[in-house]
Amino acid sequence: MEHSQQTLSVVEKAGYGLGDTATNLVWRTLMVFLPIFYTDVFGITAAAVGTLLLTCRFLDGITDFIMGIIADRTETRWGKFRPWILWMALPFGIFTILTFTTPNLGPAGKLIYAYGTYIGLILVFTASNVPYSALMGVMSPNPDDRTSLSSYRFFFAFLGALIVQAFSIYLVEFFGHGDKVKGYKYTMILFAIMSVIFFLITFFTTKERVTPLKNKQFTIKDDLKDLLHNLPWVILFFLGVFFIAMTTLKQGSIMFYFKYYLGEVNLATAFMVINVIAAMLGAALTERFTHFLGKRGTLKASLLLAIVSSALLFFASPSNIVTIFVLGTLMEFSTGPVITLFFAMLADAADYSEWKNNRRATGLVFSAGTLSIKFGSGVAGALIGGILALFGYVANVTQSAHALLGIRLLMSMLPAAAALLALIAFSFYKIDDNLLLKIQKDLAVRKEKILG
User: Fold this and answer.
1) Hey, where are the domains in the chain?
2) Which pLDDT tens digits describe the chain residue by residue (452 residues)?
3) What is the pTM assigned to this prediction?
4) Residue pair 56/378 in contact by the 8 Å Cβ criterion
């Protein structure tokens, strides 16, 4: 498949990628450490944590559509999407710190505080990440360029995850000297400062190049109608929900798994670091994989690898450390191509929508990305809290055999089931390289006629 010459420089791609380093310094912390922070440090029950994560994420998911609509209608000298990265940088840092601050309150007060700060953080996340994701769709019209940009994005996203998973446990100990409340607070202050700086770099190093043709004004009702009739978008939405559920289940269970099932909590850092490096490698190799298998073939193969490696992990005993590391690494390697191609395909879905409906709503289409992240992580967060409570988990004590079974299921079989559902959903996705080429040519001809 041939496309026009790529236009994005390495500096611009790296600058864009640092925006997801900023996001993942916080998002990966929420995935991996927030459940155990709430239960073992802040003192909220596992069931209450599950309800909180599910309720907040679903409520926040609705705002993704709203933010997509707002971003598409934003008009500034910086473009539609870049300004939101600038405007939300500082609020993102502030709410990050507040979420991991633990005031001395009673049980009800703690829960109210947790709801307030967590909702604030994910709302700011939405206002930043929906435009950030959509920015990828307007930095270049070239599908190959966007696949490359997505690879850069998720290489840097996994770099943020690597920082979190390699250093968080040590930073909490360094800052807290045994006081986890203090340790978490100052660790997150550090991550918040880094995030703000990286967001600013993204703003100043990127440029919007694809602009919609201003042929008429459309209503929000028109936007939603077009979106729901965009079958590739609908399929990608469900793929995203199940994929994010898979990764959140695994990431949110790691600390419980190593602390209670293996009894080797110090190994968790090495496990997470190796896993993130594998994911970075998977993201970096995605463009090469697509040359042999295409986008669809690469994504399907990656999901199959995730299913098999996750399911086999259930059968590993605490003494099978090497097997656990190998299977966990293979599963995480598979996430690199999936998340990279997911967002590249959202840009393709935006092109498809413009091709079919004669108008472009990039922000709304990319809201599928953050919307599926919210729904998928909300469901997974609820499952983590619910399964722990159902199987009799009690914080900071030796767990029963039944509770350990629940932790093992969260780490293996449930992620495998989510990956299987993702694969089934994606099997209905029909945009291939030939159709993409036709869409690109038709849109170019249409724009020439209107401008001419």
Assistant:
1) 10-210+219-451
2) 444 445 789 999 999 999 999 999 998 898 888 988 998 999 999 889 988 988 887 777 778 878 888 998 899 999 999 999 999 999 999 999 999 999 989 999 999 999 999 999 989 999 999 999 889 888 988 878 888 898 899 889 989 989 998 899 899 999 999 999 999 999 999 999 999 999 999 999 999 988 765 555 667 777 777 777 788 889 999 999 999 999 999 998 999 999 999 998 889 989 999 999 999 899 889 989 998 998 899 999 999 999 999 999 999 999 999 999 999 999 999 999 999 999 888 888 888 888 887 776 677 777 766 778 778 888 898 899 899 999 999 888 899 999 999 999 999 999 999 999 999 999 999 888 788 888 888 887 877 776 65
3) 0.76
4) yes
Q: Which fold has domain 10-210+219-451?
A: Growth Hormone; Chain: A; (1.20.1250)
The number of CA neighbours under 13 Å toward the Cβ of 116 is 10
